[in-house]
Amino acid sequence: xxxxxxxxxxxxxxxxxxxxxxxxxxxxxxxxxxxxxxxxxxxxxxxxxxxxxxxxxxxxxxxxxxxxxxxxxxxxxxxxxxxxxxxxxxxxxxxxxxxxxxxxxxxxxxxxxxxxxxxxxxxxxxxxxxxxxxxxxxxxxxxxxxxxxxxxxxxxxxxxxxxxxxxxxxxxxxxxxxxxxxxxxxxxxxxxxxxxxxxxxxxxxxxxxxxxxxxxxxxxxxxxxxxxxxxxxxxxxxxxxxxxxxxxxxxxxxxxxxxxxxxxxxxxxxxx
Length: 272
Known about the structure:
By secondary structure, this protein is of the alpha/beta class. The chain has a domain at about 10-150 and about 180-210 and about 265-270: 3-Layer(aba) Sandwich (Rossmann fold). It has helices at about 10-20, 25-30, 50-55, 75-80, 125-140, 165-175, 190-200, 215-235, 240-255; strands at about 40-45, 65-70, 95-100, 115-120, 145-155, 175-180, 180, 200-205, 210, 260-270. Strands 1, 2, 3, 4, 5, 8, 9 and 10 form an eight-stranded mixed sheet that branches. β1, α3 (about 50-55) and β2 form a beta-alpha-beta unit.
């Protein structure tokens, strides 16, 4: 769901402007040409508070119905309380919700979809969940737009010798076991790409990094704290060197002297 596994509505609200800047407009417009005849039905997996809907709906023709799928009922419910977008022609959307685990999604759940989409989701899923999403999407036959999956690469500026150790520890944390099953973390986008290629689909990836700096200092600070906390949880031996590193980085944050490129990849898949 996020680069750092946080699901609070406040975190989702904080990251929404940067998500909107970073997603691939190119892929969104390409998806819009493959929707079929209206009315348009979009299934948003791991929808959270509806940020993907608010970004994408104005780029697509209407009339549109959005089906918001998430395991967190409170986040899905809050989507209705947020600013509701309109379609490309200025018409209001129809919105439905579905609460449940994504590993149980199947072709029947997505039947009639014009588009299946997700944002900042794949890297916090298990292999079972990613396989279920790919199989359900192929069964539905609708194009699939998956945005902002982390790739595992982070570039902090200025660089520091410990950056790579924290990056590796964070990536290992993203691939940790959850309820006896291992999360895919940065491998997820490659796995789902392979599944669509195996199904004979076209797949088009685009790099979509976050570029964080003094212009969004609060997001950078929140992201950095989550990134380092996860790394230290995964690799406690980093605590031996962490104090000086964190003091330096936080001083740079305060001075507006730190920036970060957090690499993501968007992917559009469609049947041949």
